[in-house]
Every structure is written in structure tokens, then in C-alpha cells.
């Protein structure tokens, strides 16, 4: 393989710095001394103090290097095409450009043929180098199925009729093993922007739905230990290697979240520990009710759109639109 380091990418805005800190500490704690890990933090809206705290993570371990990249400076032309429209919002209620940064990783980091993207709401109790060494062949990405969505009947309908993928094949984009060379060859980001601005598809998860619709059939499905998500309908994995506190399942908001002990183990090592604890203590009943209402709205809107709207990924591709041109 061309790369002699393991490139890892995380994206944040100013609200997620404490959780990024916990994620990187967990990753560094479980890294293999014989491997070199380069962690690239793609960010926007950070304060000087936050930037300094992230730079201090370079002191964790000799074989773990942390770099920062201001995405506004790195990719102004691409990002300006993604606007604060309803279909571009995370959870249908919150707009942040940071969720789209992963799309442009192949274009910015041309020195890498392969890399790992992870969300910042994770902890990594395993050695992520093991995931990096999984072969992708000619596939675009490696990822884990999103079982939290797969088991909701109305969302299953949305996946089949709107995205056009089998529920068992719908992946979570919070953890991606990326074939960066292949993504450059097929001009992934250019085609993403083309479809985004031509059709403005309704999305439950804006970046994730596009990645699924565009990559389906060219995905290596990873063992779920690499993207273990809290799910009360399933028994927890005994040895998760990466835990992803997806959607509303945040141990810094709620009690009794599956895999919460892993998070607090590494949070206690963070200078943000007291801030995280205070955030949880102040997470109000009104905020929790808002979360429940938001989740219900996501499900109902997804079902209605899949049932009533002709402007879907599935119908558009069936009419002859190309995923890549």
C-alpha cells in the first residue's frame, strides 16, 4: 500500500470540541505503538482557545499526530453550494456544514489513497489500525449497516422507496473506510454537488442518504464491532472496537445509554470532563421532549415523502439519472 501512515479524519464545529477530545483520547489510548496515526480535524467556527486545546492532544502519544484544517479556507467554493435549506439539515432541525466535510476529504488530501472517517460522537476501545487494513478492492467505501434505522417500519419503507436501497444494506456514514483514490477517479464530490443542487432530495440524514444512494452496490460491509450504536432492541456487543453514540443516544444527555461506561471511562481523562458532566446535569426535560418530538417528526416526514413525493433518489435514478457522470 502506498500509505505509510494511517490517516484518520474527524469533523467538528465549535459545539463538539469536548466530545472530539474524548474520541481522540480513546483512539490514542488503544493505538498500536508500531503504527503511525495522523488525525486530521476538519473544523469551522472554532475559537483560539479550542484550537489550542486540540493542538495539545499531540502530547498524548508519540505515534499519534493531530492536525487541524479550517474547512472554510480549504474548500470555500464547494461549501458555498450547500445552503441552509430544510433538506440539508441534520435531524431535520439543525444546519451545520461540518456533516458535509467528509464528502470533500478525497479532494483535499490527495496524498492519501485510503483513509478512515469517524464522527466525533464516538469512543474507540479497539485499535482502529485493524479497520484500516481491511481491503476495499474497487469499492468506494467500507461501512456498517445502520440497524437503528433498519428496525423502524416506516423508515424501512423510506429506505426502500425513497433512497432505493434494501434496509439491510443502508449504511451509517459516521464511520467510513474510504477508498480515496477511487472517489477521486469517479469525482465523488462533484457528482454529489450536482445531484444536491439539481434535485434537492428530501433526506432523513443529509450526507448519509446521498452516500447510500450513490455508493450502494460498491460498499464493503464491515463487522458491526466497528460502528456499535446504542440500540435497546439489541443486546450490546461484548467487545465493540468503535462505539458511535448516534442521533439522540448521547451519554452526555441521558442516563442508561447502552455502552455509556466506555464513554465515561475516557471522558474522565479529558480536561472537558467537568464541562461534560455539567452539560448533562443541565440537559432539561424540555430538551428531552424536543428530542422525542424531533425523532417522531423525522419518522413521519420520511414515510410521507417516500409515499407521496416523486422527487426521490430511487425514482430519479430509475428515470435514467446517473449517480456518476
Description of the structure:
This protein is of the alpha/beta class and 325 residues long. It has one domain: Spore Coat Polysaccharide Biosynthesis Protein SpsA, Chain A, CATH 3.90.550. It has helices at residues 17-29, 48-55, 71-74, 76-79, 105-108, 129-132, 147-150, 153-163, 180-185, 188-199, 206-215, 260-267, 273-281, 285-308, 313-318, and strands spanning 6-12, 37-43, 64-70, 115-118, 122-123, 141-143, 175-178, 219-221, 243-244. The strands form two sheets. Strands 3-2-1-4-7-6-8 form a seven-stranded mixed sheet. Strands 5-9 form a two-stranded antiparallel sheet. Helix 8 (153-163) crosses helix 14. The protein is globular and about 55 Å long. The two termini are 28 Å apart. Residues 83-96 have low confidence and may be disordered.
Give a concise summary.
This protein is of the alpha/beta class. 39% of the residues lie in helices and 12% in strands.
- Assign the CATH topology: Spore Coat Polysaccharide Biosynthesis Protein SpsA, Chain A
Number of helices: 15
Q: What's the CATH first level?
A: Alpha Beta
The secondary structure category is alpha/beta
How would you spell out the order of helices and strands?
EHEHEHHHEEHEHHEHHHEEHHHH
User: Please, what is the average pLDDT?
Assistant: 90
The side-by-side strand order for the widest beta sheet comes to 3-2-1-4-7-6-8
In CATH terms, what is the architecture? Alpha-Beta Complex
The CATH homologous superfamily: Spore Coat Polysaccharide Biosynthesis Protein SpsA, Chain A
Cα distance spanning the termini = 28 Å
Top keywords for this entry?
alpha/beta, 325 residues, 39% helix, two-stranded antiparallel sheet, Spore Coat Polysaccharide Biosynthesis Protein SpsA, Chain A, 9 strands
